[in-house]
Amino acid sequence: MPRFRTGRRAGHRELPGEARPAVLRAWRAPTKVDTLAGPARRVIFEAAMSPAPAAPANVPYRGRFAPSPTGPLHFGSLLAALGSWLLARHAGGEWRVRIEDLDPPREIAGVAEAQLRSLQAFGLVPDGEVLRQSTRGGIYRAALDQLLAAGDAFVCHCSRSGLAAAGGGVHHACIAGALRTDPAVRLRVPPGTRIAFDDLLQGRVEQDLYAEVGDFVLRRTDGCWAYQLAVVVDDAAQGITDVVRGADLLDSTPRQIFLQHRLGLPTPRYAHLPLVLDADGRKLSKSLAAVPVDDDDPLPALRAAWRALGQAPPAVVAAGTPAQLLDAALRAFDPGRIPCRHALSLAALHNSDVIAAP
Ligand SMILES: [Zn+2]
To answer: Within the chain, where are the H helices?
Structure first.
């Protein structure tokens, strides 16, 4: 698991009057989020390489929510959906939805449709067509061919067990003694590649991509496209300027930034929302508490997600429908109140009313 040095510790609790990151102080200003382009998009490579083109600062905000159809929406995914929707609408921007259905062995039939019905029930209506990654193999193939032609990607016959036995499982050079019929394709990460970026919520994040991740997979041995490649290609294709998602994806972001540079694609701004943990400190999606949010009774979960985003509860208390609640939420929304933490406890939200009874 890649390790990070961030400007803020996991579980960090903000004290009254404590200094907040400059980007969040800026969020408090009466300007739109998209004025933060400068500090938020700063990316530092310590490897010798040319910088990727950054999206122009005057490009309108476009956010997204991108669930994988591996289970119905739970409270953690609702938090990411509402947080990304609020930030996009607050900035006067668009909010797109993308179904990340790239991993058939892990997917459940009908779940993508159920997720879209849940968003509808919660009043979170996307702009434009919903993009499905399962329809985009040709686009990913073209990106992979570009990387192979440039020598940035290579066919790899190594096995996971072989790499583990050779020391830690991080791939720096092929060690396979025999060719396999189902090789993977990896992106080459040269020695000295370090990635640093300023997350709008988590602060400074730095990673030694060479030492901690190594050459990473773009197409798996089972022929599936790797998440890292698809998400980078699709964020660029959809013109996403701001990626707002759960902090469980923070450790993927340096790989995605590196891949953006290799493909000559712009780097969006990133804001990683706190993870929601259950009372035992487990990630919600990994625990028994990950029961679906209730489409037939969306208001309690919406109110709890609003509280989890650090917003003032009275602002939405009078709303009688999801649409009314979202209208009130948008008027009262203050991005500067979103907790700058890596995780939140579900129990601390007093939200026994959040999830449907099992
Ligand atoms: Zn290899």
So the answer is: 22-28, 37-40, 75-90, 111-121, 137-149, 160-165, 209-212, 227-237, 253-263, 298-308, 322-332
pLDDT per position as a tens digit, 222-241: 999 999 999 999 999 999 99
Residue 116 CA to ligand 1 center (angstroms) comes to 39
Lowest-confidence region among 26-40, 55-69, 165-179, 245-259: 26-40
* Cβ atoms 297, 283 nearer than 8 A: no
**Alpha carbon of 311 to ligand 1 centroid (Å):** 48
Domains of the chain: 5-349 (3.40.50.620)
Report yes or no: 122 and 81 within 8 Å, Cβ to Cβ: yes
50 pLDDT more than 80: no
Rounded distance between C-alpha atoms, residue 277 and residue 153, angstroms = 37
- CA dist 103 and 105 (Å) reads 6
Q: List residues, by chain if needed, whose CB lies under 5 Å from ion ligand 1.
A: 156, 158, 174
- Is the pLDDT at 46 greater than 80? The verdict is no
- CA–centroid distance, residue 1 to ligand 1 (Å): 19
Residue pointed to by tokens 């009314």 = 324
Ligand 1 centre distance from Cα of residue 156 (Å): 4
Cβ distance 212 to 192 under 8 Å?
no
Q: Is 303 in a helix, a strand, or coil? A: helix
Averaged over 127-156, what is the pLDDT?
Answer: 97
Q: Ligand 1 centroid vs 51 CA: distance in angstroms?
A: 27
Residue 286, pLDDT > 60, answer no
| Whole-model pTM over 0.90 | no
Pairing of strands 43-45, 194-199: antiparallel
Across-strand partners of 271?
244
Q: How far is the CA of 157 from the centre of ligand 1 (A)?
A: 5
